[in-house]
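Collaboration report, partner site 2.

Our partner group contributed sequences for two proteins of shared interest, and the home lab folded both. The records are reproduced in the order in which they were received, starting with the first partner submission.
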Amino acid sequence: MVHKVAVIGAGPCGLTSVKACLDEGMEPTCFESSDDMGGLWKFKEVSEPNRASIYRSLTINVWKEMMCYSDYPIPADYPNYMHHSKILNYFRMYADHFKLLQYIRFQTKVKSVKQRPDFSRTGQWDVVTETRDGYEENHIFDAIICCTGHFNYPNLPLKDFPGIETFEGKYSHSWDYKGPEDMHGKRVVVIGIGNSGGDIAVEGSRVAEQMYLSTRSGAWVIRQVSDNGLPVDRFNTRFVHIMFRLLPMRFLNWLGEKKLNSMYDHVDLIVFATGYNYDFPYLPKNAIYKSGHRIGLYKHVFPPILEQPTLAIVGFIHSDGAIMPQAEMQARFVTRVFKGEEFPIKENLKTEIAKNYVVSKLTPLQVDFVEHMDDLAKDIGVQPNLLWLFLTDFPLFKKVLWGPVTAYQYRLMGPGKWEGARKAIFTQYDRINPAPVSHLAPPLILRVSK
C-alpha cells in the first residue's frame, strides 16, 4: 500500500491532492517552489520566469458554485464570478479549514524525480529537492502527484511576424500584461481572441486612441449573465446533458446560436464591423473556431456587448478560469489507484475528445465536464444514483437532475461522503450574489506558514 506521496505544486490541484491523500490515510508532502500557495491565482506585479502570470483585473469565468471544492462551499457573500484576490483567499480558507499547511514545504524546488533501482519491485521514487538557500535533500516516496500547471511559459511566435525586428513600437505577450497603463493614447493591436485577448482588448480600449483585435478565428461571444441576471453556468445540468445526447446536433446549434444572437446579433454587431464570416457552428467545438483572418476595429464593437452585462455582477472583466471540481475528482481517483484499486483505462481518449473539441498545442485539452466527472465518479463509487434518489429522496432527485451539476453531487454517497452535501445543493441558489463593485475591497488574508 502507498504511504508516502510527494505532491509537486501548491496550486488548486496540489491543495486538493494533499487533502485527498489525507482522506485515504496517506502521508503527503507538498513541495512548492514559491513562497505562497495558489499557483496561477497568486498575483504579482512583476512576472517571474517559469511561473504562471495573471493581470491585475483578472476575474474567473466560472460561477463560484460550479468551481468550488465539493465539501467546502465558497462563502455566500463572495461574488458569483470572483476577482483573483477572492479566489486566492478561498484557497487559504480551504487549506486552513482542512489543516493542509503543515504538509506544504514552501520555497522548495523539485530538481529531479527518478525511479529507484528496485522500482519494479517496490514502485518507489527518488526525489531531489532544493531550498531557496541552495540546500539539497534526497527523499524516497511511494507515489508522485505532479500539479505544476500548464500556463507557466509564454508562447510568443516572433518568427511568424515578418518585420518584427525593425518594428519601432513595443510588443509583449499577455503573460507580461498587468494593466493598460502603457496603452494611453496609443494605437494598439491585440493578437488572439481567446479569453485573455478579449479581456485586454476591452480593458485597453478605455485608454487607447484606437484598439484593434487580430485573429485567425471568429468567436461566439458568450456572456456570464443569462435570463433574470442569473449565472449562465446554471444551464449545465444533467437534464441538458441528456438532451445533448438525444437531440440532433443541427437543432442544438440552431438553438444555441439563436440564444446567443438574442443577446447581441453577431452578424449585425460583429460581421458588419469586422468582416468575419460566421460560417462555423456554435457547437460542438469550443468557443473559438477557425475562420477567415481579419483585423477588426475592436474599440467600437466589443466593449458595449462584453462589458455592460458583466460589470453589473463582477465589477471587472471576466477571463480564464479553472474548475476545481475536476482537479479534485482526479485527485480522489488517483489516490484510490494508489491504494491498489484497479480501474479500466479508456482507450483512444484523445480521439474521442477530438470529435467534439479543438485539439492543438494552442488550447488546453478539454473534455465534456459532466461525462468526465461521472466517469471518474463511477469508478470510485461516488456517482449520484438518480434512480435511488428518485425512489428515496424525490426533492433531492429534482435538484440533481434539473439543477447545475455542482461538485456537491459527488459527496452524496460512497467513499468521502459529506453530510453537508444535500444542504449545499439545496442552498446553492441562496448563495447567488449580485456582487457590487465594493467586493473589490482588500480581502481577508490568513497567515501562511513558510
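Second partner submission, folded after the first:
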Amino acid sequence: MATVPSKRKLVGCANFVRSNPLSDAFECEKFDHIEFWCGDATNAAARFGVGLGMGLRCKSDATTGNGTYASYAMKSNDLTFVFTAPYGVESGGSRGEAPHPGHEGRAMMRFFEKHGLAARAVGVRVKDARAAYEEAVKRGARGVLAPTVLTHTVDDGCAKGGQVIAEIELYGDVVLRFVNATDGFDGDFLCNYSATRDAPDVSYGLQRLDHAVGNVHDLIETVDYITKVTGFHEFAEFTAEDIGTIDSGLNSMVLANNNEYVLLPVNEPTFGTKRKSQIQTYLEQNNGPGLQHLALKTDDIFATVREMRKYSHLRGGFDFQAPASDDYYKQLKAKIGDALNDEQYALVEELGLLVDKDDQGVLIQVFTKPVGDRPTLFLEIIQRIGCMRRKADSESFEQAAGCGGFGKGNFSELFKSIEAYEATLQI
C-alpha cells in the first residue's frame, strides 16, 4: 500500500502559532517515570543518585525474589528514574518473581548491547491504561505490552492496591508506558517493588521531569505517528534556521498532551552543513532513534547546580557543557531585562548557566555532557520563571507548562559547546 503523504509542514519558530485543541485520545495526566535499561543497575542507580540527588525508594532484585533482573527506583520529589539490568541470561527465560511481565533477560541484554545505558520506557500516568492502549492501537499504534493487571502482594507496610500497565512503541526501541493505579495503590513505582525504608531521603531540589526529547531519522513521519495514536498536539517547533549555527543543525517539533505537562520534543538531523549534525551523531552512536535528553525542573537552579557541581570532579556526578562566551554574559542583561536581579545575573555567569525568555516567562538552563561513554544521552537542568495561573476550582496557583520556552535564544551557544566537545572525540 502506498504511503499517504503527510499534510504536516515545518514553518519554524517565528511562524508557528501555538494553540491547544484539547485533542487527547485518552485522559493523560503527567509523566510518571523514566525507566533505563543498562548493564549494571546497582552502579547506574548509585551514580544518578549522587549526581542528581535522588534517593532509592524501592527495588526488585535477587534479594526480593526477582531472579530475572535487578531494578532500582530513584526519586526526588515527583521525579522518578528507574534503572534495570538483567542477570545472567543463559537460560533465556524468567526465574523467580519479576514485577514487570514483559521484561525478558535476553531482550534486555540485546537492548543494552545495541544502545548502552538508554531509556527504554517513558511512563505516563493516565486515567485508564486499558482504555488508553485500546484507543491508541485502534488509531494505529504498534502494541508492545497489552493491558496487564498488577497486584501488590509485597507485605512491606508501604503500599497496597494494584495497577494496570500497557505499552506501545514510541520511537526506535523506546516505549510509551501507560500506568494507572487501582484500589488506592500508593507505591513509588510498580507493584511488588519492595520499599527501601532505611535509605536516606536526599534531594538537590529537582522537582519533576519537564520534557523528554527524542531523536529520529524522519521528524514528520514520527510526529504523524505519535499525534495520530495519542491525539497530542504540537506545542512548539524549530527549524535549522532557528538554531543560529552554520556547523550543525536540527529540525524539532514539541508535542504536548491536553494539560501540556507531558512535553515530548522530537528532533531530526539536517544535512549539507560543514560538519555532521549532533543529531546524526546520536543516531549513529545509539544505533537508531532513541531518547536524547531529559529536562529536569527545579525551583532553584542555582542551589541545584551548585550541589551537582560538588560531585562532578569525583566522577560520581555529571560534567557540564562548557559555559557560554564572555560576550554572551555581557549582553545577557540587555536581552533578558529585569526578570533577574543583579545577584542572579552574577550567579548565572558563575555557574555557567544560559537564560532565555519568550512572551510569557523566563527559562534558565544548563546541560550536562553525555552521561556515559557514548555521545548519546545527556541531561538538562532548568528553572522556569513566570506564567503563574490559578488552578481550576482552587484558590492556589500553578505554573503553566513550558513557561519561557525551550531556550531558542541559547541554541547557538549550546550547539557550539556540543560541537566543541564532539570535536574532541575520535569516533
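Feedback sent to the partner group on the second submission included the following. The mean pLDDT is 91. The two ends are 39 Å apart (CA to CA).
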